[in-house]
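Ticket #4471: structure output looks truncated?

Reporter: J.K.
Steps to reproduce: submitted the chain below (206 residues) through the standard prediction queue, then opened the result file.
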Amino acid sequence: MTDEPDDVHYDRLYRATDRPPWEIGGPQPALAEVLDAGVRGPRVLDVGCGTGELALALARLGHDVTGVDISPVAIGQARAKAAGAGLPVRFEVCDATAIPVPPVPYDSVFDSGLLHSLDRRGAAVRDYLALLPRLTAPGGAVFVLAVSPEAGEGWGLDAGTLRAAFPGPDWTHVTVEPVDVLARVGRADLHLAANLLRATRAPAGL
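Returned output as attached by the reporter:
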């Protein structure tokens, strides 16, 4: 990672001729089971949405979706995709550590590759994790897809670290399973070791 601000860094990547490796033209395959099994809705938040592929897939399932990303360039591309597809997704430029808490929290929150990026930056992780319980409705679900150190990239979040980031009493039914993350570099598909966390926001009063 560079020392430039996050919005500048990601804007530069999204403006590049070669798309960022995490932009694969659809949601991560590891999240397919979550989408197929039925997402808790109707209100869904996609944090670090990039150009919106996961948010658009959620909207096609009938959910009321909001996507946020720190990159204005990515959000502009996401809005164009939504308009072209006729999907009413709200896309907003927003730092993940400062997402406005809505009057009605989200029934599901998706993080497809954001937390491990924040971890590489450092201090933002604490603020982001502290915000998630306020964004998620009691009984709602959070899904976090993060590259594992086993991928050999020199960074990532192992299963124990992920699980520890979602402690009680705020979270229950926390599970972590090994999966792959798909990245595309040029014409090559890379499969990186990753972990998928699922957690339930504890019901009110617990």
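Triage note (M.O.): checked the attachment and the full token line is present. The mean pLDDT is 93.
Status: closed, working as intended.
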